[in-house]
User: What shape does this take?
Amino acid sequence: MAAFKPNQPISTDQPAVVVDAGLQPGRYRFRLVVIDAAGNASLPSEQIITILEPRPLGPVAVPPPPLQPPSQPAQDRSPPWWLRWRR
Assistant: This one.
């Protein structure tokens, strides 16, 4: 695992670098230079990354329990039809 330090090169003969997760929040510029077997160096490729402060986790919403069918059928409590049409 590579521990990045400002202005310190990291050399490896592997095609990938495992990054240490200990970088502090801020902006970082990374420069990649590849050297082939003959010793020829590529043009540098630069990337700027920003590491943000971790956000605190808020309360987690718990979904309500699923609805259960009633144990007894609901009774019709509406008024009789002749009272529904009267005003």
About this structure: Helices lie at 81-84.
